From TrEMBL:
Keyword Transferase: no
Signal sequence range: none
Record keyword Transmembrane helix present: yes
Keywords: Aspartyl protease, Cell membrane, Hydrolase, Membrane, Protease, Transmembrane, Transmembrane helix
Lineage summary: Bacteria, Bacillati, Chloroflexota, Anaerolineae, Anaerolineales
Catalytically driven reaction(s): Release of signal peptides from bacterial membrane prolipoproteins. Hydrolyzes -Xaa-Yaa-Zaa-|-(S,diacylglyceryl)Cys-, in which Xaa is hydrophobic (preferably Leu), and Yaa (Ala or Ser) and Zaa (Gly or Ala) have small, neutral side chains
Gene that encodes the chain: lspA
UniProt name for this protein: Lipoprotein signal peptidase
Pfam families, alphabetized: Peptidase_A8
Major place of residence: membrane
EC number: 3.4.23.36
Length: 179
């Protein structure tokens, strides 16, 4: 149960922040309406009330049911796999928590209002939300964690190979014969 506490804390924080920000946007802006605190910032970043029936960043529009089922499958896989991840692999645990929170945040929208509310608009990049960001950051953390683990494993195996170098053993054997 202790293993799930960290997962619940991370994913619950993402879900809470995601749902809170989406509710603020839905309550404050009409669909398609834009808000920016400073006019000079508008071309670069703004809040726009938008909705999405596809995946993250507006891709694959109209496939909401597919992504609803996919979110359940992903959530089930994460919940099943999470306790099997060693506690020392905090990067992988963080990544799974972020991905679960993002998947659940968007799933809640799909089940309650039939689409996902998006609102962060940066430059010409597709409009997105906190859940989309969490999934993306989770993938980044996952890749970084895997890279660092692989690098550590290579260093460890290189250290073992150096210790077991046959040339070193031959030199040590010659030294013991001379004694």
């Amino acid at each position: 149960m202790r293993d799930y506490l960290v997962l619940l804390l991370i994913s619950g924080s993402v879900i809470g922040l995601d749902q809170w920000t989406k509710s603020l946007v839905r309550a404050s802006l009409e669909l398609g309406e834009m808000w920016s605190p400073w006019p000079w910032l508008t071309p670069y970043a703004r809040i726009v009330h938008w909705y999405n029936t596809g995946s993250a960043f507006g891709m694959f529009q109209g496939l909401g049911m597919v992504f609803t089922v996919l979110a359940f499958v992903i959530a089930g896989a994460i919940i099943f796999y999470y306790p099997r991840v060693p506690r020392e692999e905090w990067g992988l645990r963080l990544a799974l928590g972020l991905q679960l929170g993002g998947a659940m945040g968007n799933l809640i929208d799909r089940l309650t209002i039939g689409h996902v509310t998006d609102f962060v608009s940066v430059g010409t990049f597709p409009v997105f939300n906190v859940a989309d960001s969490s999934i993306t950051v989770g993938v980044g953390v996952l890749l970084l964690s895997m890279y660092l683990q692989e690098r550590a494993a290579q260093k460890q195996s290189a250290g073992q190979v150096k210790q077991e170098d046959p040339a070193d053993a031959a030199v040590q054997g010659d030294a013991s014969i001379e004694q």
